[in-house]
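Progress narrative, work stream C.
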Amino acid sequence: MVASTSKARAWRHSHPGAAPLLVVALALAAASQARAQWMSPGELARAHGKLDHDDACGKCHKSGHRVETALCTECHDDIGRQRSGGDGLHGGRFRKQDCGHCHVEHRGKNHKLIRWPGGAKARFEHDITGFALRGMHAGTACGDCHTKKNRRGAQTLLGLRSECKACHAERDVHRGRMGDDCGSCHNARSWTSAKLDHFDHDRARFKLKGKHSDLVCSACHHDPPRYRNIPFESCQSCHRDPHRGRLGDDCKSCHNESRFDDVRMQRGSHPGLSLGGGHTRVDCARCHDRGVRSAPSRGNRCVSCHEPVHEAPFGNDCKSCHHSIRWLGLPERIGRSAHGLTAFALEGRHQGVACDQCHDPGHPRPERFRQLQFQHCRDCHEDAHGGKLSRYGDGDCKSCHDVSGFRPTRFSVEQHAHADFPLIGRHVAVPCASCHRIEPPRLDFTLEHQRCADCHENPHGRQFERELREGGCGSCHNPVAWNLPNIDHSTWPLQGAHGLVACASCHTPSEDDRRAGSGASYRGVPRECEGCHRDPHLGQFRLSEPLRRCDFCHGNTHFAIERFDHTGKAGYGLEGKHAELECAACHRQQTLRNGMETTRHRLGYRNCKDCHADPHTEAGR
């Protein structure tokens, strides 16, 4: 200011006649600066820099100099939701305070917008948010927790939940097994100082039962304690095996958690040999001649104690048939279970067939057993179809049936493709009985009628008689879907949005169709726009010159006009300030005498005075 004053004084000495002009210029400059200061109290912060112009004052102010909170929440809708819902800091303690109480503007673009309670961000009392920072949380920087950004791309302090899993879910070493209430065991001071006095061990993967429930924690978790990666897959993870692995690793087959010396050897758990049947009455020492913890010296095979009695070479695996330790008089089920070792395993319905039905006692033994014929189903079963299906699957029943039962059939769509009428499209989902209408049992599957009209009603009346004579329904339709016809629409191409319109939107039944009880009419459908679409302009372009068709302005992709050529189509170029106006500024909604409303597009005036008052007349001043 001093430099400017010195320059002005020097200039005044060199131009003595211009001094009065200088005084006037300085006065005008001071007045202009005063008006600018009156209009704006100062520069906006950088975050609101886009609003730092005269036209944007209404974004924050309504009247006077007061900031309207309702205007703030129009942009900051996330805070608005907190205030209306009573959530968070803005919806709790500061719900009834205006935004300007804590957020002060017009202090310069480098000014921070938040006036923190307590005087500074570092002194903010986090308790008022409902989540007090204690323990390890007290030394955590704000940015370590508040990492979210709002929809405007700016960092926000809103939206954090107070439960532990909101921040520590990825570090949950329990992987959700202990629930979501971390505070039941841990605190904010130290994660490792867990309080486990009342911990329910049933929530862990290893339940404490029997003698395990009397143990102190350090017996398994050691001191200092370790809670992860404690092995417990088998009893040997913690206990020494006195049998040194000779009896396997399933300790629970003999022992329990209540008492180790309460040994109960299960019949099926005795290693190497079942204790069922006659072995139940045998004393342990009779076999375990070297002690109960040692295997018998003679081994554990049947032939170690019992001499073979079979003359046939059935091998030494006696338990394959005598697994119940019943030596004589084996029931039929033993023979059935061993039937899988033969060339014909008993499966499905064959399992319930009496032995004599296949192995006829009236036949000699070789013919009854070893020479029995069973290569084909017809060796035993009569052909219920009388040979009419012999061309399928080499005439064998297995192409359609299996041993589970004669019904349901396994005749598939793929097999039907080789029949006289392949199943295509919707025919695949049609139940067999819809076409094969013979009363059960359906043994004859031949069909005489296979034309569309034999099963389907003609909904079109006489509209397509020529097409039906030449190619039938298949001229337009296919079995994939009735509503997806193969129609050549080239006489009126379906372009743009018309390609997405359902057929019934244009082809609707007429009164004649309804009286005749037929479907929609497909001939004589109007092709002009006004034949299907309502005129939203209420005749402005149809009833007054120059007449305009719909396609003069609109395309067939969508009704809305993306860019209207105002010069070429309306004959009135939008230049200067006119180019910035919204369409509704000139083309306003009008209510007609019949009560209908429409936008007036043909205005009927083109001169300035038709819209603007003359500011140079007395009336316009």
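Work stream C, second folded protein:
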Amino acid sequence: MIAIAICSLTLSNIWYVDDDATGPGSGTFDDPFPTIQQGINAAESGDTVLIRDGTYKSNGNRNLFVDGKAITLRSEHDSTQCVIDAEGFSTIFNIKDVTGGTLTIQGITMTHGVSIRGGALYAEDSNISLAGVRCISNAAGYDGGAAYFENCNVSLTDTTCDSNRTISQSASGGAVYAWNSKLHVEQCAFTNNLARGYGGALGAESCDVAMSDSTFSSNGSPFKGAYYGGAVSIYPGHADIKRCTFENGWAYEVGGGLFLYDDSPASFPPSRVIDCKFSHNQADTGGGLQLLSLRAIVKGCEFTDNVSAGYSGSGGGLYASGNITINGCVMARNTAQGEEGLGSAMVLALYGTIRVSDCVATNNRGNSTIAVQSFGAADKAYISNCIFSANSSPVCVAGYAPTLLINCLLDHTVPRRNGGSVVNASSAQVELDNCTVTGRPDSGIGSGRYGVGACSASQGGTLLIRNSILWFFGDYQIRLNSGSDHADVRYSCIKGGYAGTGNISADPQFAGVGDYRLSQFSPCCDAGDNTSVPSDSCDLDNDGDFQEQVPFDLEGNARFFDNPFVSDTGFGTPPVVDMGCFEWNSQSAPNFWFQEGPILRRGWGY
């Protein structure tokens, strides 16, 4: 048995290449080949071609062909010591039909490659791994400024792509382009890449993409006719993206940092964008991220200082459309610049159901902070346990989009010059459940066309307000701008009063300046309606039950908690729910969530 095992071993060879060798060479340690192609020709699947330090140019070291060989091409040390320079004459690697294993390229710099597709590397029908590789200053006439992959299984690890580009109109993937492939990107850096089509750094079409711990900086597709993804475009495809940074990206049309269109079948899990950062990106629509998906999750992401710049450009931080869950995200200092632009923090364009929970939007600038638009009768938006504070514009709900705001704090400074309100139900039904709406107008002159206040309805809009507090220091708390508008307000605390069952007008007695929890003897304690507490549509406790009543308040305390210092004036079996986004709780630490100035939440300061 031992003899059989030894005889069955297949020994791999190492073939040596040295640009200083005089040749012809035999590929041994002491007699290396002078060109890389000689090493490739000698190698069989499983072998290694070891390329010694140096700069490799001229014939035999560019336009290299690897057909069907699962070999390893690696440098002696690292990519800073081993450079293949095509000098603008051709691509560097042509790879086909590597299916019986994986072709590995490791620790090599590829530069000045030029080709119709794949400036430095062109691959078809192959398994390929690039590790510790640098692709610098390569160009393609069409797709893939540095690398082009078709029908491939690709892994990019610890790889840098810098200053690559595509040249022709609509040519995609300034650094990398993949079609009908599986693409894994980990710990990579893409900088200063340009495409005239989709994906300034990376364009993936009909691909399954996994990316993690990578950085995309100063990439762009800013040319007229270049539509999607200043840094990355995945269109169409499926993606799982974690802990990546997208910064200073620029798209002419949509998705300044990332554009993702997921059309994958129901058998696939939802696309995910998890714990990513989008900063200082720009596009007409979706300054940071544009996401169109049948099923997708955006979780734990930060969107800061992104811009939607077109006249009607929308979604300074995020533009989302489809059946999408957005959880635990921060939207800060994003801008919707255009006169008709909407959603400085985000636009929810409904082709299904969008659920937003546990998010913070602060210091955003534009005509509205969140714009909700609907395109179908069954569409709906749920916004739960979110904070909107110090934004220059209202939370605007428009376009026939039924929307529920649950356990939300809306602390806004609304521009007096243009008028408006914190919440605007325009041609839509907007329901506020256990929300607190407060703030004051800015110091601009005049009240605008409709005045400045807490909530308004227009163009046949409807406001349903339950267990909420409206304590805005403006012209009104609730305004109906036409005869077709409607408001139904119950068990709520309304500054100045409002007709409806269980409503009160007494001072809510907040805990402190900028702290909108209830003080111990607040008249809003135990004064709500238990039957009006909505279902847990965003599954705040993550137990898979979307039908139970909302279990938590904004602070994460139990939604039903008895205050023994006040009488129950609300409706239902005790404990009776409080009004507003916070349930009084004797265990709450004073001033834990809020202070004057920037919001502090989970350690985030903006």
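Residues 36-42 form the longest helix (7 residues). No further action is required on this item.
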